[in-house]
Amino acid sequence: MKDVRIALYPNRDRDPGFGVTRRLISTILKFGSAAVIEPAIVPDLIEEGLVRDSYASCDLMICLGGDGTFLSAAHHESSRNLAKTGVNLGSVGFLQEIDPDRMDEAVARLVEGDYEIEDRSLLESSCFDTGGHKVLNDEALNDVVIARGSRAKSIVTALEVDGVRVQDIPGDGVIVSTPTGSTAYSLSAGGPIVHPTADVILVTPICPHTTQNRSYVIGAGARIVLRLISNQDGAFLTVDGRGGYELTTGSRVNIKTSERKVKYIRLWGDSFFKTLPAKIQQRGLSR
Questions:
Q1: Measured between alpha carbons, how far is 253 from 243 in angstroms, rounded to an integer?
Q2: CATH, domain range 123-259
Q3: Which of 69, 89, 204, 284 could potentially form a cystine with 14 if both were Cys, beta carbons 3.0 to 4.6 Å apart?
Q4: pTM for the complete prediction?
Q5: Per residue in 205-244, pLDDT tens?
Q6: Which positions are annotated as active-site residues?
Q7: Measured distance CA(277)–CA(140) in Å, rounded
Q8: pLDDT tens-digit map of 39-66
Q9: What kind of architecture, by CATH, is found in domain 5-115+267-285?
């Protein structure tokens, strides 16, 4: 057995009492490896054999929760470069491919290196105010979203691709997503499903007030600009659901594919289309 340092990223809301997390720690120790959680993460979790150390000292990471937990781990500073997989404790888990009853088999594969690494693209987004000053810079594994505020009737967002103004989109906003994010908010807005390793960027209007309501599938090398050109009562920018930065008329968001990739662990081979129908059905029932 190999001594592998496995970082754990728990979610107390998805795992009350940390029962699954404790079982996973025990399984990792059984295979002669180390289970590591940073001191600031769930400090009230005390378990024999658990190592409290920086995630930067680890070889890979297991997230415990739903897809939101995986996204949080992907943005966590000390674990950004770790290859990741997850135990699905959420309702669907497009990113969390380990069922709790298969944790022993999963850990055995992780310890032996019996898995594949899949590079997932990120979007780099930069937000500028009306004076041209950069006010936000962030990365998204799922999506970058401009959306109207709760009181706003509608907003108009101009879409530019590689310097060409493509369309002014009236409605509730616009989603720019990665292939990974094609099964998230973009799907709810009527966007297409694409394989997570596809070399594309998706642009999907949210409840557009126009007959042209289709998504755009754009090459990953494109430079995308969203400009807020009409904004009556408020609009906001979110990146993977985080932030909520308030925009004003004239604000713009520049979006491109990031040079950084998220290393995603495939334990059971490329099962995306095999598991997709069940996950789509489960996603609908969970709402």
A1: 14
A2: 2.60.200.30
A3: 89
A4: 0.93
A5: 999 998 777 899 999 999 999 999 987 677 999 999 998 8
A6: 67
A7: 25
A8: 999 999 999 999 999 999 999 999 999 9
A9: 3-Layer(aba) Sandwich (3.40)
